[in-house]
Amino acid sequence: MTKRVCVIGAGSSGLSAIKCCLDEGLEPTCFEGTDDIGGLWRFKETPEDGRASIYRSVIMNTSKEMMCFSDFPSPEDFPNYMPNAKVLEYFRMYAEHFNLAKYIRFKTTVCSAKKRPDFAITGQWDVITEMEGKQESAIFDAILVCSGHHTSPNLPLGSFPGIEKFKGQCFHSRDYKDPFEFKGKRIIVIGLGNSGGDLAVEISLVAKQVFISTRRGAWILNRVSENGFPLDVVMSKRYKKLMKRFMPMSMFNSREENKMNARFNHENYGLKPRHRIISQHPTVSDDLPNRIISGKVLIRPNVKRFTETAAIFEDGTMEENIDVVVFATGYCCHFPFFEDSIAKVEDNRLPLYKHVFPPHLEKNTVAFIGLIQPLGAIMPVAELQNRWATRIFKGLNKLPSEDVMNADITLKREKQKKFYVESPRHTLQVDFMEYMDDLAAEIDAKPNLLSLLVKDPKLAKELFFGPCTPYQYRLKGPGKWDKARETILTQRDRIIKPTKTRLLNYDMTDSSSSMPLYLKVVALLLVIAAVFLSL
Ligand code: FAD
Ligand code: NAP
């Protein structure tokens, strides 16, 4: 009998969940609490309960070739870093192309999902949903939890004595939409993650003064990297991963930090953290240094306490006449439809095997999708998780014993602790390529570079020296895509296409720009002389 799978949420993770169920011959029903697809990427003027909420200007910090689904490249004319409306457009194209909408029940919220009495034998779930006040119950063989983890704000008011007396406006970044209402005001943004960086920069265009309060500083990365290629395209390469493995970590850190400091000195800009660059989830902000150098944004340490109108910082300095405090302090995972016996989140941590499966259940029929924070895009990672999970549900792949899974969880947690600075925001952190390879190996979709080197050296070269794009995981195994090779070999064209909008119709090596002949001869003679002198 075809297994019925409940998919919770129709954001990017939920869409690929439906597609993967269909690919494996499972029967998906996706419940989406709101009236449309896209999850976080659908901008609305007012935040909706139970769905993430973004500001109008959000632009991705992962690029289109790295964030797309592995068998559906973003259109070649789409910008590399898509504004939110384009991201949504891409998801709509994906849903339409694979005809996914008919499996989604909109305005239907999953209220509870409980193990059925015979769960130990069947692995089945009783799922209760609510649509316009009416509750319904249904039985499912498995659940893919795709409800997102950027919905419930982390508002650490208890860590800020005096905030209750503060007379100005105070809110979480989730509730921020536009900068206009902050014209002429003095604002403190708490937190220097990507929300803090984005909000401070945007608000500073109209505000009188913006301060960022950060308890540990951050290395600031730029979307535009070497030769104008997107940062993640430049960073996520297999040969770099190999080099990193053999390079002492301190050397790797110094090399990357030097690059960041070559753009602007982080110490002189008040941003330098005590930790090394690799130890924190990256903050990408193209404009922050520009706003700091123009004095519109000033960096301050953590706030020790607030008064009715002022903030006193840990270094003893004070800023008075503060109008607004924005908490850009991140989010907490939250699964209100599960009892603690299924999913108990503690310190923003849910113990999951390979960040997907709770190890303690008698049957592995629930999988958490997208509950990760990669050094890269979430979408293709969530897609691979879906590919793996659906095969587990179908019985084509098996999980190890509970003890083995728990041991793996402990090992990974120790590694994570050693690598990243201790912060709740790092509990979901994974390395993009390493994690993708790990999942792909589970379903035999990890590309074999050595065999490709013999059979298809051109492709092998691009896999090794080019960006690790999601199509690499469609070259073999279940779900093999016959266009994967061609898509990989043309990826650079698709990256360049949207920026190269003014084509040169003249020869760049014209006589005025090239070196005169006599100078070339002199240069050649100098080189020959230098060679002889050095012998
Ligand atoms: P979501 O997009 O949050 O979708 C979850 C869906 O589940 C929603 O539609 C919600 O309505 C629905 N839902 C929830 N609970 C229920 C329920 N009980 N019943 C029914 N439906 C339910 N990631 C990147 O990879 N690149 C980026 O550049 C990037 N930028 C970001 C910018 C911001 C400001 C933020 C906050 C996050 C960003 N992220 C980025 C991370 C982001 O979470 C992912 O891009 C992506 O949205 C995750 O998709 P998802 O489907 O897992 O979750
Ligand atoms: P985040 O990454 O969790 O960052 C939270 C920030 O708040 C960190 O600087 C953290 O400091 C600080 N903080 C948390 N609790 C604090 C406390 N009690 N006291 C002082 N400081 C505290 O959250 P986010 O910036 O909202 O980002 C969430 C996700 O959305 C990330 O995946 C991010 O990449 C993504 N995002 C992307 C974009 C984009 O693409 N343009 C924009 C915004 C967000 P510590 O480091 O010290 O913990």
**Helix fraction bin:** 25-40%
Q: How many domains in all?
A: 2
Taken from the alpha-carbon principal axes, the silhouette is: globular
User: How are the strands ordered across the major sheet?
Assistant: 3-2-1-7-20
Describe this structure in words.
Its EC number is 1.-.-.-. Its cofactor is FAD. This is Flavin-containing monooxygenase. The chain crosses the membrane at residues 515-533. GO terms for molecular function: flavin adenine dinucleotide binding; N,N-dimethylaniline monooxygenase activity; NAD(P)H oxidase H2O2-forming activity; NADP binding. Helices cover 32% and strands 16% of the residues. The termini are far apart. It folds into 2 domains: 4-151 and 332-438, FAD/NAD(P)-binding domain (3-Layer(bba) Sandwich), CATH 3.50.50; 156-329, FAD/NAD(P)-binding domain. The protein has a 5-stranded parallel beta sheet with strand order 3-2-1-7-20, covered by helices on one side. By secondary structure, the chain is α/β, with parallel strands linked by helices. Strand 10, helix 5 (194-203) and strand 11 (209-213) form a beta-alpha-beta unit. The protein has helices at residues 12-23, 64-67, 84-97, 119-122, 194-203, 231-235, 238-246, 249-263, 288-293, 379-394, 402-419, 432-442, 449-455, 457-465, 484-489, 491-496, 517-534, and strands at residues 4-8, 27-31, 104-105, 108-115, 125-131, 134-140, 142-145, 152-153, 169-172, 186-190, 209-213, 220-221, 283-284, 297-300, 303-306, 311-313, 318-319, 324-327, 331-332, 366-368, 373-374, 429-430. The longest helix has 18 residues, at 402-419. Helix 10 (379-394) packs parallel to helix 12. It has 17 helices and 22 strands. The mean pLDDT is 94. The protein binds flavin-adenine dinucleotide and NADP nicotinamide-adenine-dinucleotide phosphate. Residues 8-14, 31-34, 39-41, 50-52, 54, 58, 60-62, 67, 109-110, 146-148, 150, 195, 337, 370, 377-379, 382 line the site of flavin-adenine dinucleotide.
